[in-house]
Design a protein that fits this description.
Elements: H1 3-27, H2 32-56
Helix pairs in contact: 1-2
């Protein structure tokens, strides 16, 4: 696995956990333990996203690099071919 793939996997894991906890909090808005866990995961996610965007460009159109068109410079998924 490349460094890029490892970061993508970590980011995806924390994003999923945050979304899952947020959905839980929709029905349990006063669950202090879940709120604490959500904040913990958000705090772990931020530096991962920052690291990824510094090394590989923005993850979304609203990436924080100041250049909203930088994402089109990356290869598209179908442009990457690896020989097995």
């Amino acid at each position: 696995m490349t460094e890029r793939e490892i970061l993508q996997k970590k980011i995806g894991t924390y994003k999923f956990a945050c979304k899952d906890i947020t959905l839980f909090l929709d029905t349990h808005p006063f669950d202090e333990e879940s709120i604490k866990k959500l904040r913990e995961y958000q705090d772990k996610l931020k530096p991962l996203v920052k690291e990824y965007e510094e090394k590989f460009g923005p993850l979304t159109l609203s990436g924080d690099d100041g250049n909203t068109w930088a994402w089109v410079k990356d290869p598209w998924p179908w442009d990457i071919w690896e020989e097995n």
